[in-house]
Amino acid sequence: MTAPMTESRAVRWGLGVVLGVLALQAVRLSLHKAFSIDEFQYAHSAWLMAHGQVPYRDFFEVHFPLVYQLLAPLFRLLGDDPRNVLALRAAMLVPLAGAGVSVFLLNRREGRIAALLAPLLLLSTPAFLHFATEVRPDALTAALFLGALAALTVRSAPSSFFAGALLIASAWGSQKALFFGGLVGAVLVGDLLLRRGRPPALIAAPRAFVLGLLTASGAVAAYLTVTDSWSAWWHWCFVWASEHQRHYPGFSWREYLLPILGEQPAFFLLATVGFIATSLSQWRDARTQDLLLVVAVPATFGAYALQRAPFPYSLLPFLGVLSPFAARGAVAVLAWLRTPLIRAVGLVGLGGLFAVQAAHVEALMDGGGNARQREVLARIATLTGPRDVVYDNSGGFVSRPHAHFYFYTDAYLRGSLVDLLSDDMPRALVEQGCVARVDDLRTSGLPPALRRFLDAHYQPYDGDLFLWGQRYRVPVDAGVLEDHFLAVRADRYFLQPASALDTGALFIDGARISTPEFTLTRGEHTLRYEGRAQAFQLLWLPRDGRRWTPRPGAPPTYSRLF
Predict the structure, then answer these.
(1) Cα–Cα distance between 465 and 459 in angstroms, integer?
(2) Model pTM?
């Protein structure tokens, strides 16, 4: 008996060390991996809520707002520097840790090895870790759902209360949880009706569970009532969202799932073994503590596959519920290896799997990580102030005011709001005094009229940032240019290059400009240039007071899809 116990203790210590290493890798990934384009959108929503704005009512939003509500206090605490989005990334490590604890608890009855393997396999799964470390509603929702499942396995009244509250919280985190959480909830209701509390019931303390449901639901209802956003919430998150789902240019669920299957076959194979073994055991022994976990697999997969556009981050709950099964599958495979030598080979193979997966996770930081994006965010902080309006179709300015209710658009909106984006958006940019814009992956999909306006009135500070200004060409034969300049707000502007004043005369509203920098009132001004300069620009002077030279043709690097 001594040798197996020694081996088991050694394996547990080894798994604990590997788990610690993977946890540190997750922290590095969170802080250094490039930001996905949607993260800026979610971060901006959190910043807006930190400044008292209400989603659906004050700005366009179709996601449930829990992640914004939880992250908004960070902006109130840290301030309006766009680089604080990194603190939001760090905060997402909390639900990631919660997910790890939850899958550990879901497997604790399977033994310490299976319990340790569950979070270990979860943290070594690149497809999960990629998105679970991001600022996303899906990451929080997956963690809360796993927490609810884990709490139901702890047979006590407080845990039943927390299970009910976490189930509602997961639904408030994302509409997708209404599907898989609803199926799990239906099983729980069916169990209550059939067993009427008699053991072995799925809910240890039904009254505490219902109290948890009511408490969390009451908090949601209170928020919608106090903010007077019931109607707007229903319209955008249900009525409009269902219309959006029907018309969004979609794709097959296989598009992202199959590559993940190809990259991580061992994880899915072990999960299949564990799922089959658990299902057979559940069928024979009616082990109710595993029933919800078994049900959660098709429920979370269905929530992914039935979407019109099943992007890979929607796989987070599915991968989360698979990890306990993958751990059980690994234990089952090791149990089939009878001799110590073969079992040692199996353990080495498991270690090799962790090493390969960790290498895949490390590859997520290739290409410089988020260093360039942090440089751009730092420039936004330097060039603009917290009240300066900035435009980006994806909220890439993070903690600056936006110009229009539709501060971001997706493919469906860009196709259905052509007139609004073509006419209202340029007008809003001028009315709101928008001094800067950020280029992103979606700029090319904007209507041509809006793109022409952006090109005419914003000049390239670099490949990612554009500041307000207009460019002019002086007719070579005449040497005289008469035109107009639109000052987007009352502020300081400058002539670039300043040498244009040495070779000619610049008049604005009939008054001669004698210095490169000058102040203009808001609105359109007449412009006349007489001289030998072939081209020049009138540009907005940024917050730091430094004149700059436009860099046309500089490559954009800020915006990334995933």
Answers:
(1) 8
(2) 0.92
